[in-house]
Write the structure tokens for this entry.
Amino acid sequence: MTTSPHIPQGFWQNARGELIPEARIKPVDRLEDQLVRSMCQTARGVHEQLGALKALALGEAQAFKALVAQEYGAEKGGAKGNMTLRSFDGTLEMQVAVAEHLSFGPQLAAAKELIDACVTRWSEGANDNIRALIDHAFQVNKEGRIDTHRVLGLRRLDIEDADWKRAMDAISDAVRVSGSKTYVRFYQIDAETGQRAAITLDLANV
């Protein structure tokens, strides 16, 4: 048990902030406390190692990208920083992927009004399905935000209507890049089948 300097000697503090005499703590509770603290300390160490691995991988990838650019006068990878590197025999792969976080500006409200006007104006029949599709696209997700993928998916609908096209233009104008996150992924590829298997660093998938 790691005690805080604010906790008197011989006492443990429970989850409610109450001080409990150590003699009154059940042995099984002491054992559970010791187990959790030990494993969490180990987990923090692994977490730090994963952070160091990511920093190392990104640093090495960027250094290699700069080397290629210097030697051949060409960029390695995509414009957003995406990059795929492979071993010479093709059995190992490292991917650097940059995912952008999108949000919408005030133009989205205008787009919704134009879309609603289109649905109202169009003849009945399949329009109930279209309205359900529209309402679904503009629903908020678990975080209370409008799902960008669902709204942007509306632009894939091939609808020849001037107001609809104006609405799609408004959606495009509403898109904001609010941030990005860089991921590093490692894969092992079967030389015979070509099947890619992730070298997982996610504890839940190990």
The chain has a mean pLDDT of 84. The longest strand covers residues 175-189. The two ends are 30 Å apart (CA to CA). DSSP finds five helices and six strands in the chain.
